[in-house]
From TrEMBL:
Protein name: Sugar transporter
Region (Disordered): 1-31
Domain of life from the UniProt record: Bacteria
Database matches in InterPro entries: Bact_polysacc_biosynth/exp (IPR050445)
Coiled coil ranges: 228-320
Biased composition range(s): Low complexity: 1-21
Organism in which the protein naturally occurs: Tropicimonas omnivorans
Keyword annotations: Coiled coil, Membrane, Sugar transport, Transmembrane, Transmembrane helix, Transport
Transmembrane segments: 62-82, 392-415
Amino acid sequence: MPHTAALATNPAPAAPALLRRPPIPAAKERGPRPVLPEAFHKPHVVRPAASPARSKRRHRRLIASFALSVLAPLLLAAGYLYDRAADQFASDAGFAVRKEEGMSGIDLLGGLGDLGGGDTADADILHAYLQSQDLVTAVEAEFDLRAVWSAPHARDPLFALEPEASLEDLVDYWQRMVRVSYDPGSGLIEMQVRAFEAADAQHIAEVVLSRSGEMINALSDQAQEDATRHARRELSEAEARLQDARARLTRFRATTRVVDPAADVQSQMGLIDTLQQQLADEMIKLDLLRNRTRDTDPRIDQAERRIEIIEGRIEAERQKFGNAAQDRASYAETVSEFERLTAEREFAEGAYVAARAALDAAVAEARRQSRYLAAFIAPTRAETARFPDRPLILLVAGLFAVLLWAIGTLVFYSLRDRR
């Protein structure tokens, strides 16, 4: 084949001399084995790859920096905590804001009422009040907090309050010594008060509980006042309207000299009825006289005269109902004015009764929804001091010291390696 012929005519080029391996002679052509020195007949000894580690300057610097940055502060902190730090006693208390809500008859039958539910908004207010300056000032007025919390200041200036601390410093120290935990879901508040004496811690907790109860009572009173303010205003306006209506009716009676125009009109109507009855009798008598006597009888003239007088009196009495006299109004006007004033008085009386009932209902509802502070854990009195928590403080301080030392060392060597 052409390719095979090309390979036969063009053999592969020879390898360079440096890359070619010399031929291995046959066993007979190698000759005698050379004799090795005596040292080569000794057993082979393996020498170590590196010499043993030796302490260098940077190692000593690391150890010294660790001792100065970590061990020395921990020793100083342990000495202060166990030798100079004053023991602190804790008093625990737990309470919640409850609302006393009554039940109607339907709720009692259906079992839908709630005898005492908590108010989350009031619990939030109380939680904020426990950390406020107002409470600190109130407790300070009843219990000398500065004297109690600054008693060990000469020996323990780190954990004790300064004797000449300002109100702001006292409030900040209050945040440290009075720990408050609050569960918004249930409305339960737990409080821990610390002091350097167990009796002082318990006393402070009792004062705080008392002041908190007063604040909740003030909130309840304010809520009741807010609930009844509108009803009281409506009642006041109704009272003023009723007094004005009665005063105008009294002035009307004094002016017209009529206590009850309806009764007066009834009396006038009775008088007119009587006169009409007399007129009828006189007219009958006149007819009888005319039938029995002559027209010249003087009794006829007298009868006619009596009839004219009675008719004039009837007409005069009837005029009182329509036309007003010079010194007094007509009976129609008098009765109309009296009825208007009477209607206004009756309306004012009805409005007053309704406003009074609304106020009574608002007061009853406000009392039914009164708030109070329920303590489920009374302020306790400790037997042993649990604070300051010395092991925990040393552990946290050690972790921070080691972390700062490690970060500082890494930064130092990274900067040195960059040079």
